[in-house]
Amino acid sequence: MTRCLIVLALLIASADSLFAQTGDSEVAFESSIFDGKTLNGWTIENDCEAEVKDGVLLLKAGDGWLRSDFSYTDFLLKLEWKALKAEKYDAGIYIRTRPGGKPFPKQGHQINLLQDREGDLVANKDAMSDGLIKKGEWNSIEILAKGKMLSVVMNGKHAYTLDDALKHESGHVGFQIEVPLGGQFLIRNIELAELTHESIFDGKTLAGWEGAGKPKETCWKVEDGNIVCTGEKGGPWLRTAKEYGDFNLRFDYQVSPGGNSGIYVRVPKDGNHHREDDSKPEAGFEIQVLDDQAKQYAKLKPYQYCGSLYDICGASSQVGRAAGEWNTLEINCNGQHVTTTHNGVLIVDVTPESHPLISLRKTSGFLGLQNHSTIVKFRNVRVGSAMPMK
Question: What is the pTM of this model?
Answer without folding.
Answer: 0.91
